[in-house]
Design brief:
The complex is a heterodimer of chains A (437) and B (175).
Chain A: H1 18-41, H2 53-91, H3 102-107, H4 111-128, H5 141-144, H6 157-188, H7 192-219, H8 232-257, H9 266-297, H10 300-310, H11 315-333, H12 336-339, H13 342-369, H14 393-415, H15 427-431
Helix pairs in contact in A: 1-14, 2-4, 2-7, 2-8, 2-13, 2-14, 4-6, 6-7, 7-8, 8-9, 8-13, 9-11, 11-13
Chain B: E1 5-11, H1 14-27, E2 31-35, H2 43-46, H3 54-80, H4 96-119, E3 140-145, H5 153-162, E4 167-172
Antiparallel strand pairs in B: 1-3, 1-4, 2-3
Helix pairs in contact in B: 3-4
Classes of the chains: A mainly alpha (437), B alpha+beta (175).
Amino acid sequence: MSHDTHIEIKEEKYTITDGNKKWSYGLMIVGLLLTILGYFTYHPSVEGMNLTADDLHHLVSKRFWGNLLVDSYFTFIIATCAIIFVVISQLANAAWYVAIRRIPEAMSTYMIIGAGLLLTIILVNFYVLHGGIYHWAHPGVMETDPLLAKKTWYLSQPFYLVRLVLFTAFWIFCAAQIRKNSRNEDLVGGVENFDKNFRISTVFLVVFGFTFSMFAWDLMMSVDAHWYSTIFTIYNFATGWVSALTVTYLLVWYLRGKGYLGIVTDEHQHDLGKFMFAFSVFWTYMWTAQFLLIWYANIPEEVVYYKERMFGSYQFNFYLNIVLNFVVPFFIFMMRDAKRNRKVGYFVGGAILIGHWNDCLLMVMPGAMDLPTAISEHNPTGSIEIPNQGIGFMEIGMLLFFAGLFLTVVLKGLTKANLYPTRHPFIYESAMHDVGV
Amino acid sequence: MDTNKVILGIYNDPDHIYDTTKKLIHDGYRVRDVYSPFAIHGMDRVLGIKRSRLTVAAFCFAMTGIVLALTLQTYASYFDWQMNVGGKPSLHIPTYIPITFELAILCTAFGMVGCFFAVNKMVWGKNADIIDIRVTDDLFVVAIDIIPNKTDVAELSSILKNNGAIEIREREFED
């Protein structure tokens, strides 16, 4: 309604309420307790398969570190893709997103914690657990395994750590610069900071495109070091990107419900919803493309990846993945009114977030646990189900803990700047945003 | 429609035509349509245009495509002539995905183009009835119905003129 609505640009600041603190700390505490409960109640056993006390200890440890990797990675890519959303919109000279831009910016403040956690996990796995969930990092494996022989130069621990540190440091640096310029703009106005952000975004996006590939291979794909997929990166990016959009969408609803974000309307919400819908389909496309080729070609080295997931302990997660990440968003968010409705939005947003967390879980856990699902004399068909895998106390606990941590950091990030940029060149155009009837 | 005579107000500024249309509707005139070379933000709401039902049609066409694709593939590869391809099961559902997806899109695209032609009464050989050739370039036209014994043409003309119309004329529709 461009012509007659009076637009008032105000400086809005978010203040953290007691309710916020109660929820985010509560989630962290409950999550921690559940994780501990899960840690001590996990006793995998299969008849006919003799697991020694040592084996059990390894399995519990692998499950713990695998879960930690899943949640650290998931929250980290959400934070990273949030700033990538700002970068891409900036480069596209988009205007509609300007009113909600500070929310992905606040989400990106989590990146430094996420990167620290990832680095800790890798260091502990490499040097304390002698490989841990990364089979290829176990001593002696790279030298003796013919399938890994060609990957020796790439999968070396020092090179791996250098890559991880350099990539994440560069992303964090760019995100911090973008945030700084954006906040500066509120004070000085003009287009100088806009231009600066444009230049940073250009470099950031190009570098991100290449480095994210290696980042995803390193952290996720190398859990199953024998297996590889060329579409894996874009599939991971789709996961992070759609989750980042979903978190933004949910936070915008929440903040509007609390009376903040005066210039944001259902129109912005609708466009974010369209993005969620579109990229849920995009994720499905990537997922299907990866699955279909491997299923069809039926090459043993590749198929083993899906065998572990489609049959046995993780079967439920495998089908849950398709329902939550495709069926729910596709059929509900297809409707225009659903994207503009708070309750439906919360429902679909929650489904997408849990779905993509489950997707990350499915990428890591079967490979990390390295359960004896292979055909052996105890397990002639290779599909004996080992009880107590999949989603248990530890998974749920860790998810709640990370949800609490993420919320704490993001809400704190929101307090550091105005809730929408007051002097961005496109702010009026963004406030007038209208997708029509 | 109880009339096929309209008065056309021709404008060269989208803001002027927006304000005029708003005022005319407020004053109770019956605005038939507004013609513009590009979309004017908010005009759809001013004119009270209802949401298009094209999306519903698209969904139905897509479902048609999906059903067709699944029926054909299931019939051909399972019921009619089973083949063993690489040891796959005969009812190899994952391989149905690409064809189902493509046929859904094909049916949606063709169906929607067909709908578009039907709704706009476009037939091969029919000449376009453009309200004023200049709306295809840089001018904006608002068409107001002239209802016999009700619409005061002189007053209407003066409203149009006062709101920045560069030209006013009457015309008749054939239907």
